[in-house]
């Protein structure tokens, strides 16, 4: 288990509900492919603040809610860091992303995402 002391939220690093095939899909990020349907429908973008579950979203207050001004994305600036990020830091990174958004920034995040996925999959 990995904990976040600030919020008490946690995610299981070895979730017992995930099958062997599921682990492969997660490791290679193929589990994200169905979200492309949401991109095609205009509900998501390739790059943007990652959507949160309702309990996490309820904890985001004040100016940090500006992360909602952009369409949520399949990948975003904190996903390419290669490490787990506490929620408050994640929200801060999203805030800076929204405040400084450019097409060039999205292209850099996409390139870093591809590099991160290839490294994670040991390709």
Structure report:
The chain has five helices and four strands. The two termini are 27 Å apart. The strands form two sheets. It has a two-stranded antiparallel sheet. The protein has a two-stranded parallel ribbon with strand order 3-4. It is globular and about 40 Å long. Helix content is 40%, strand content 8%. With 123 residues, the chain is mainly α.
Strand and helix layout:
Blueprint: E1 2-3, E2 10-11, H1 20-27, H2 35-40, E3 45-47, H3 54-57, E4 73-75, H4 87-99, H5 103-120
Parallel strand pairs: 3-4
Antiparallel strand pairs: 1-2
Task: Please describe the structure with a list of short key phrases separated by commas or semicolons.
123 residues, mainly alpha, two-stranded antiparallel ribbon, two-stranded parallel sheet, 8% strand, disordered N terminus
